[in-house]
């Protein structure tokens, strides 16, 4: 296995990310919310789907349990999500993108990659990104941040650099040094669990990651090892895929020590359910099938799934199903090394349910 090289062709990739999208739409449409800490989502046992910039200094973040958010910010105003409105605004924004390139890869309602390499029309990618941001503001009265670089990984990093309402460029000559200056927790594709595993090996920054051999990373992180080896050097050859269709939404975690207590295992399912439901909300999506993945200490792996007659409606429903599926398969002398939750059979939230003859069932 040989690492990818950057290749001779320099691409022009833009990542556009709306600023606190759901919350900003609510503040735009309701003047009484402007300048105040706002969270979209809530409910007694719900989670925050989006938080306004006024709420963030208090520590309020998306995917946070609403009860914790209220404790951190007693003046926090919760607003019920209006996905039909967010979807309509998203369509306005994507229509603007389409004026510049057909190569658009939406990641959710509020962010997308654009490949401008063959669609510059005599302009720079930076100038086009600025024009797109101005047009979004004029059309929607909302702000967007953009990152411009020569690959998707760096463009996404760049869009976070000057939020909100910012533009940042990482040119090819600066890419590797920029990556190596960052903590690994900032890397897209390295979540908290993987970051903790890396830190256990002394890998805390991009520079630390770049010092590791491909063999070392592959041995400890499997197929992801080559991806980590590449991004530490500013290399990412993934294409912008306009026809990307998400078939499932999932999250998993590998534990430092194998789990042998079912109460602890159920507790570990909670952040996984949070993450899956957060991604579902961001994509205005829900699903009918919840799948539990279990890997035991001896590396045997099983899945158990439950399909529903109607789409799941909450994070709590995902968690309840996952816990139910876990009970019969948890006991094993080798303990549990990994747990994962996946939501599939996806459909747009609020869509008319498709007819279904099967009711609730479990499958191996």
Strand order of the largest sheet: 5-6-1-7-8
Task: Give the C-alpha Rg.
Answer: 21 Å
What is the 3D form? globular
What is the helical fraction, as a range of percent?
25-40%
Terminal CA distance: 34 Å
| CATH class descriptor of the largest domain | Alpha Beta
As residue ranges, the low-confidence spans are 1-7, 352-364
Tell me the series of helices and strands, N- to C-terminal. Answer: EHEEHEHEEHEHEHHHHHEHEEHEE
What is the CATH fold-level name of the largest domain? Dna Ligase, domain 1
> How many beta-strand elements?
13
Under the CATH scheme, the architecture of the largest domain is: 2-Layer Sandwich
Strand-pairing-aware structural class: alpha+beta
CATH-defined superfamily of the largest domain: DNA polymerase, Y-family, little finger domain
Mean pLDDT: 89
The total of helices stands at 12
Main location: cytoplasm
Organism: Paracoccus shanxieyensis
Keywords: Cytoplasm, DNA damage, DNA repair, DNA replication, DNA-binding, DNA-directed DNA polymerase, Magnesium, Metal-binding, Mutator protein, Nucleotidyltransferase, Transferase
Family: Belongs to the DNA polymerase type-Y family.
């Amino acid at each position: 296995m040989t690492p990818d090289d950057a290749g001779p062709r320099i691409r022009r990739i833009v990542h556009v990310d709306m600023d606190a999208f759901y919350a900003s739409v609510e503040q735009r449409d309701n003047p009484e919310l402007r300048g105040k800490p706002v969270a979209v989502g809530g409910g007694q046992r719900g989670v925050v789907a989006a938080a306004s910039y006024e709420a963030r200094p208090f520590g309020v973040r998306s995917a946070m349990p609403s009860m914790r958010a209220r404790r951190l910010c007693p003046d926090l105003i919760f607003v019920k999500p209006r996905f039909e409105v967010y979807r309509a605004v998203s369509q306005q924004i994507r229509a603007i993108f389409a004026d510049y390139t057909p190569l658009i890869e939406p990641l959710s309602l509020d962010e997308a990659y654009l490949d401008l390499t063959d669609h510059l029309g005599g302009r720079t990618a930076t100038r086009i990104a600025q024009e797109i941001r101005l047009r979004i503001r004029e059309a929607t009265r909302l702000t967007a941040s953009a990152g411009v670089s020569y690959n998707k990984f760096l463009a996404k990093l760049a869009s976070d650099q000057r939020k909100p309402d910012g533009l940042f460029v990482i040119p090819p000559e600066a890419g590797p040094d920029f990556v190596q200056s960052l903590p690994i927790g900032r890397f897209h594709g390295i979540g908290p669990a993987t970051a903790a595993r890396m830190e256990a090996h002394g890998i805390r920054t991009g520079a630390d990651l770049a010092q590791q051999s491909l063999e070392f990373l592959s041995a400890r992180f499997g197929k992801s090892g080559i991806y980590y080896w590449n991004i530490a050097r500013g290399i990412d050859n993934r294409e912008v895929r306009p026809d990307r269709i998400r078939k499932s939404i999932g999250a998993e975690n590998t534990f430092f020590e194998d789990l042998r207590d079912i109460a602890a295992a159920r507790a570990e399912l909670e952040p996984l359910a949070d993450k899956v439901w957060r991604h579902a909300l961001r994509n205005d999506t829900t699903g009918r099938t919840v799948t539990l993945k279990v890997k035991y200490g001896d590396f045997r792996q099983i899945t158990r799934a439950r399909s529903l007659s109607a789409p799941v409606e909450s994070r709590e429903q995902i968690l309840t199903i996952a816990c139910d599926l876990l009970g019969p398969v948890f006991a094993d002398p080798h303990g549990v090394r990994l747990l994962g939750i996946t939501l599939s059979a996806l459909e747009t939230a609020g869509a008319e349910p498709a007819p279904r003859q099967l009711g609730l069932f479990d499958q191996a």
